[in-house]
Write a structure and sequence with these properties.
This protein is α+β, with helices and mostly antiparallel strands and 299 residues long.
Length: 299
């Protein structure tokens, strides 16, 4: 009798769940949800990695400017400041920026020969501290001012801090979007499972009379949902992978120091690969819970 019930249940599965276009709609919903989730996940992971790289770049780094309209006084003041910096125990490294490099960076805005035009071009010194302690930064800034009134020390964290906070906010927002997409997917699957039960209440009652249990009926829906979710996850993953690779190639072509940190590591890629399997598992679990709960009300 149990075997007969199982055979009948298999036939009922085909009638109850193979609803033509309805099953394909679920696959498309899963594909779209997973596509958006993977894009959000990739963006969040890359942004978090960029924020971490920016924090490491900002930690304990200063730029000293020596501004003087007279090039000879400027160079003399820059030499005094450089000597004072290298004598400080808080300073791990102090390197002057060559004027040729500075002129090349300013060329798009100031032209080919800014000094000849009477424009004051500062002397810059890159400074790395032994720590990012605020007291150390203040001591170095005070030493710079003592060495030359025309010199000023700017901590990278002062003007890059807002960028780092923006990247952190974007990473957290991407995580929130992923949670919302997972919740929406679970809700859609539960609604679809309940609708299938309501639409085929009579078939399910017959299956029960043949000896099938609630768990056996739930497994029928689980297999159908797992198949639809698997098809949708495969489609969504392929399209998302193509989109992520395209965006990564375009970001790499920009050759920007700031955007260069927007890269995915091995662990990030592994997390994105696991995500589709988690999506399918979530869909199956949501379908099982919805079916068991609804059947307790129906029967």
């Amino acid at each position: 009798m149990t075997r007969v019930a199982g055979d009948r249940a298999t036939g009922a599965e085909q009638r109850a769940l193979d609803d033509g276009g309805g099953a394909h709609v679920m696959s498309w919903v899963i594909a779209i949800m997973l596509f958006l989730t993977l894009l959000s996940g990739a963006a969040g992971l890359a942004t978090a990695r960029a924020a971490g790289a920016l924090d490491r770049q900002m930690a304990g780094r200063l730029t000293v400017q020596v501004v003087d309209g007279e090039p000879q006084r400027r160079d003399a003041a820059a030499a005094r400041v450089l000597a004072a910096l290298r004598a400080l125990p808080d300073v791990a490294r102090a390197v002057p920026v060559p004027q040729a490099d500075l002129a090349r960076m300013l060329q798009p805005w100031l032209g080919n020969d800014a000094e000849a035009a009477g424009l004051p071009v500062p002397a810059l010194i890159d400074v790395d501290l032994n720590s990012d302690d605020g007291a150390a930064i203040r001591r170095v800034a005070a030493a710079v001012r003592r060495a030359s009134p025309a010199a000023r020390a700017d901590a990278h964290a002062t003007w890059l801090g807002p960028v780092g906070r923006l990247l952190d906010t974007a990473a957290w927002l991407a995580g929130a979007i992923i949670l919302l997409m997972l919740s929406a997917t679970a809700a859609v699957v539960m609604l679809a499972a309940r609708a299938g039960l309501e639409a085929h209440r009579g078939t399910i009652e017959v299956i029960h009379m043949l000896g099938a249990t609630d768990r056996q009926v739930a497994r029928l829906f689980q297999r159908r949902i797992a198949l639809d979710a698997g098809i949708g996850a495969t489609l969504g993953s392929v399209v998302a992978a193509a989109a992520i690779l395209l965006i990564a190639r375009q970001v790499g072509a920009l050759e920007s120091d700031l955007l260069d940190g927007l890269r995915l590591g091995v662990g990030d890629v592994a997390a994105l690969v696991v995500l589709p399997f988690g999506f399918v598992g979530l869909a199956v679990l949501a379908a099982r819970l919805a079916v068991l709960r609804q059947m307790r009300r129906m029967l």
